[in-house]
Design a protein that fits this description.
alpha+beta; four-stranded antiparallel beta sheet; 15 helices; 45% helix
């Protein structure tokens, strides 16, 4: 008898202390937390002191047992309410509240344990009177409501601390995951935090390359309002067994949060990606070397999938022919001889000057403000190639056209290094340097061909084989610029003062397996018009999303462990 009251009094005291930790002077939803906990604690204390202590009865025991079951649930609701408003809470206050909540949980659990029928310290006479039908129906209804509410709280605890169900929303992880696949994410080892607080369980797992993780999207703001909304969304999502998703933004678009991607880079590494191959180096291994494990997961040509799996894929970003043309561009870039490109660029500029002289027009040779002949979007790959006829006419007739064209074609040759590797220690800069030259040579060839055709026919338009071949090259180069961000990535982290930087401790770099259809940690959500080659003042430009960044371990929710739906693809999801 004495033992049960010790635990009940301990529950009351810990609940009262927990209530004090909820105090706030803010006027918002957070001010509801303290009254809620105080009212519950008062009811609990009155039932214990006035009913169970003075006049023990079966109804009093059942009531106090039910209150003990709900004590940690009410406390966690108050905990969330206190942190759902605009006023912030310190780590110290969060920690104290969590400790007090744990005490409420333990003392109430022990109280329930000793109030079970087999350990009941009180003796009551059995009653033979049966309740009427209305009361029985009401009691049954209350039992159902009670079971649902308790299940909801238990599910929420499991969702926060143990595992989370997740429905794959996109094809960024094909062929590992398809749209609609349901996976279970184990969270305990990843150190989950208490809802809306800074207090977390210790993280006992260290992630390795190849792990598939679910993590909070770093592209989205992590303000208090957003965190509250995310918590509610995840709770509803879990309670509905992934059938109801409320994670939409103001425009009605589904939020890409959380994300599921594969760990591609780990602490202590510097990465770079060229032509779809990921390279890494460390402080102890200074030369970039291909990451063999990444090659096992990266998928570029979905057309190579098995027919049974291919039928389930919705989007094929590139056809087999497109992928082949992309690979041809990469082979041309690799095999480009810089010295030969230099000689051809000089020849094209000289030939254009000679042709303009034959036309008898001297405006193109006047200097004027020739540096601003083409600026900004005029140098965009698409604009240059689609407007090649208009560009040729401008170069032939407008002041400074030939001067600008000569600088466009040859300025890079003044500083190009000898040999065939312009940037020896940076394969990405080397590849973009060469890509820019391929584009420039194609522009130059088209311009010269247009002028030659004009001298012969009086028109730029022609449908000869050379023109068709050059326009095909231009189309393929533009197409490559669209997919460049999926096949290439600059050195990351970027060098500082000419020295390599490495991914810091507890930071990880993630990518999707379906590289043409994955907006991941390589990218920003905004496109920017940038130079293909920063070293060339007259470089062509293209639109890019490249902005690589890491994800801190604190934002990783857990490892995907099991695909439980569809049943014909049931199985573990992590690599060995």
């Amino acid at each position: 008898m004495k033992r049960i009251f010790i635990f009940l009094y301990a529950t009351i005291i810990s609940s009262l202390l927990f209530s004090v930790s909820l105090f706030t002077l803010s006027f918002g939803i957070e001010m509801c937390a303290l009254p809620l906990m105080l009212v519950f604690t008062a009811i609990f204390a009155l039932v214990v002191l006035l009913k169970l202590k003075k006049e023990p009865s079966l109804s009093a025991v059942l009531t106090i047992r039910k209150l003990c079951e709900y004590a940690p649930f009410v406390a966690i609701v108050a905990f969330v309410l206190r942190r759902a408003g605009v006023s912030d809470t310190s780590y110290t206050l969060d920690f104290i509240s969590v400790i007090l909540w744990v005490l409420v949980l333990l003392f109430s659990a022990f109280s329930v344990f000793f109030l079970k029928d087999k350990r009941m310290p009180f003796k009551f006479k059995e009653t033979k009177k049966k309740p009427n039908i209305a009361k029985r129906i009401f009691t049954e209804l209350l039992d159902w409501i009670d079971a649902f509410v308790q299940a909801a709280f238990i599910v929420s605890f499991v969702n926060v601390f143990v595992f989370q169900l997740y429905a794959i929303p996109s094809e960024s992880m094909v062929p590992q995951f398809l749209i609609g696949d349901r996976v279970a994410v184990f969270k305990t080892a990843s150190g989950p935090s208490f809802p809306l607080s800074k207090v977390a369980l210790p993280r006992i797992v260290s992630y390795k390359r190849g792990d598939i993780v679910v993590f909070r999207n770093p592209h989205y703001a992590s303000g208090r309002k957003y965190e509250v909304k995310t918590f509610v969304n995840q709770l509803v999502y879990m309670l509905s067994f992934t059938t109801v998703n409320l994670a939409y933004d103001e425009s009605g678009q589904m939020l890409a949060d959380p994300l599921v991607k594969r760990v591609a880079g780990v602490p202590g590494e510097q990465l770079v990606m060229v032509d779809g191959v990921l390279y890494a180096r460390t402080a102890s291994q200074m030369n970039f070397a291909p990451v063999k494990l990444d090659a096992e997961f990266a998928k570029y040509n979905l057309n190579e999938l098995e027919p049974s799996l291919k039928r389930k894929v919705h989007d094929f970003p590139v056809s087999s022919d497109d992928f082949e043309s992309l690979c041809k561009i990469e082979e041309m870039r690799k095999s480009l001889d810089i010295e030969s490109a230099k000689l051809e660029s000089l020849r094209i500029a000289s030939q254009f000057n000679m042709l303009c002289t034959q036309l008898g027009s001297f405006k193109p040779f006047q200097t004027g403000d020739w540096q601003n002949f083409l600026l900004g979007k005029d140098l965009w790959v698409y604009n240059l190639f689609t407007n090649i006829d208009n560009l040729t006419q401008r170069l032939m007739t407008q002041e400074g056209g030939a001067v600008w064209f000569s600088a466009f074609m040859t300025d890079w040759t003044k500083t190009c290094p000898a040999g065939s590797t312009p940037v020896a220690d940076d394969p990405y800069e080397d590849s973009m340097y060469r890509l820019n030259l391929l584009m420039k040579l194609t522009v130059g060839r088209l311009v010269v061909h247009n002028v030659e055709n004009y001298l012969k026919t009086g028109s730029f338009s022609s449908n000869d084989e050379e023109r068709r071949s050059l326009m095909t090259d231009a189309q393929n180069l533009y197409k490559y610029s669209l997919f460049n961000d999926s096949r290439n990535m600059p050195v990351f982290p970027a060098n500082k003062d000419g020295k390599p930087s490495y991914i810091e401790k507890n930071e990880y770099f993630m990518m999707g397996d379906n590289r043409f259809n994955s907006l991941d940690m390589r990218h920003s959500y905004d496109q920017t018009l940038v130079s293909v080659c920063e070293a060339d003042a007259y470089s062509l430009k293209y639109y890019t999303r490249l902005d690589p960044h890491t994800v801190n371990a604190s934002r990783i929710l857990g490892l995907t462990t099991l695909r439980f739906y569809p049943f014909n693809r049931f199985g573990l999801t992590q690599s060995k």
